[in-house]
Amino acid sequence: MVKVKVFVTLKESVLDPQGKAVSNALQSLGYEEVADVRIGKYMELTIEPSGRDIETVVRDACEKLLSNPVIEDYRYEIEEAVTQ
Fold first, then answer.
1. Pick among 1.10.3730.10, 3.40.50.720, 3.30.1280.10, 1.10.8.60: CATH of 2-81
2. Whole-angstrom distance, CA of residue 83 vs CA of residue 3
3. Which of 8, 9, 25, 73 shows a CA-CA span of 20 to 30 A to 42?
4. Strand pairing partners for 45?
5. Which of 66, 68, 58, 76 lies closest to 14, judged by CA?
């Protein structure tokens, strides 16, 4: 099996009201050095190898379900075999 870490974030051009709220809260708590916060999603997929290319499976899943390609970007990391 293969473990895939998927990171989904809003595109830079998209406003992030949740990130802004967290940024403001951190500022009010005295963390003046925090300049900006962007909120995203993190997912771990465990994939059993089949006849399909793992990267193709992950890209298709990200583009069709795990992210909204209009407003979000994604990246992923594939780790070697995972034992269960």
1. 3.30.1280.10
2. 10
3. 25
4. 4
5. 68
Instruction: Let me know: does 6 contact 58? Beta carbons within 8 Å.
Output: yes
Dist CA 36 CA 24 (whole Å): 9
DSSP-based three-state secondary structure for 56: helix
Q: Tokens 């925090």, residue?
A: 34
Q: What is the pTM of this model?
A: 0.85
CA distance 51 to 54: 9
CB atoms within 10 A of CB 10: 19
Please name the residue that has the structure tokens 């709220």. Answer: 21
Closest CA to 32 of 23, 40, 41: 23
SS3 (DSSP) at 40: strand
The tens digit of pLDDT for each residue in 45-69 reads 999 988 899 999 999 999 999 999 9
